[in-house]
Amino acid sequence: MGARTFLVHGLVAGLLAGIAAFVVAYTVGEPQIDKAIALEEAASAPASDGHDHTHADSDESAGHSHGDEAAVSRTAQSTVGLATGTLAVGVVLGGFTGLLAALGLGRLGSLRPAASTALLAAIGAVSFSIVPFLKYPATPPAVGSGETIDSRTAVYFGFVAVSVAGAVAAIALARWGARRWSGVPGVLAGLGAYALVVVVAAVAFPKIDELGDFPAGILWDFRVSSLLTLLAMWAVIGAVLVALVDRTWRRHSDVRARRELAASL
User: Do 8 and 134 lie in a common domain?
Assistant: First the structure.
């Protein structure tokens, strides 16, 4: 089983994960985005001054609708755009996870390929998505200033980099501890090291609070739906990749066993 096999398996898993993430995001996430957009539009609508401007504004409104019409409709954003995004992210994450599984083959103690793949997929989900989400949870379109989007993006990916680097260091420490002591103390040392890194980083990285008076209920529902989308993507990546790796490994094992049997006759 070479790296190419793991990569292909990862791409297939990522494609299926992107489809699953799209279904979850469209079902439970898009309604929350629609609510946030409606709130934003209501807040930006001009207040009535008590006079009737219906006739005076009719031509002006018509001209405005054509001049400022969005380049991409909301329907396209919530269907084609969303599907394109989830498929692209799923394929990238799946392929990267497949390569990590190939790199970890035989380097995680006596774990079989399927078990080591499952472990690395879980580590990737936690370090790349779940822990950063807990520090900087997703926010709907109506939340946050456009002037700070670059700084907020930089801080988020900086925290992701620290989390992933901490996971890599924790794996190295766990392997060293397993050789020096035994499996369980080594694993506990790695987990403790990662927890320490992310806790220190969470305290050191700046807090972002631009919620204003956004309704707490809609914000909660949006963040739950975003987390469910992430979990769906990683769950499918892990499950499909593990199943494909295990099937390929069993086939290779059967072929090798038959060759050894034929050579012994």
Answer: yes
